[in-house]
Amino acid sequence: MRVITGKAKGHRLKAPKGLGTRPMLDRVKEALFSVLEGYGPIRGAVLDLYAGTGSLGIECLSRGADSADFVERNAHVCSIIAENLRHTRFDQQARIHHMPVDRFLHRQRGVGRYDIIIMDPPYADPEIEATMQLVASSGVGKEGSLLIVGHSPRVVLADAYPGLHRIKFRRLGDSCFSIYELATTATPEQEG
User: GO BP, one example (predicted)?
Assistant: First the structure.
């Protein structure tokens, strides 16, 4: 596993031993970032949920993102993210949050600061849609922010959820990613 391009191009990243963490394959990551850069240069603040090794957030930093927050519940995996950030020299632009994703999203409610939100949860995560909807309703992004979701082909996601609409779907072998754009949803009080 390596950083594909940008400031840290070619840097190898550490991964925990075993299959508890399943980093996105390099070819899938290349396809994802090729699509993402079609929407313009990668800039602003990035949120990497279920961060694992941190490779997706680090790739964003390497390509020009200003900052990245990494959310991971496993303490050992958090230490590997920290090593990867030091190795790529992005540790001053990043924060690691050792907690479950849903707790982080509830704590950050309404910050509206992230331009790109990435979630690559465990493949068979039954909560994937609930977490996507929590991202949209918690207000961690803003109108036009992108939500990237890595998922199994066996996980069928809708084209739209409240506050989210899919703008791209791609399948590569046994891996898929969907890109959603965040939109503000009017509350009943706003509509009346």
Answer: rRNA methylation
Q: How far apart are CA 137 and CA 141, in angstroms?
A: 9
Least confident stretch, 12-21, 68-77, 131-140: 12-21
**Which of 22-26, 52-56, 135-139 comes out lowest in average pLDDT?**
22-26
Q: How many CA atoms lie within 13 A of 117 on its CB side?
A: 29
Are 147 and 117 within 8 A, CB to CB? yes
* pLDDT, mean of residues 13-41: 79
Closest listed residue to residue 123, CA positions, set 4, 28, 1 = 28
Are 49 and 117 a contacting pair, CB within 8 Å?
yes
Amino acid occupying residue 175: S
Homologous superfamily assigned to 2-182: Vaccinia Virus protein VP39 (3.40.50.150)
| Distances 159 to 52, 66, 96, 133, 170 between C-alpha atoms, Å | 26, 29, 31, 13, 13
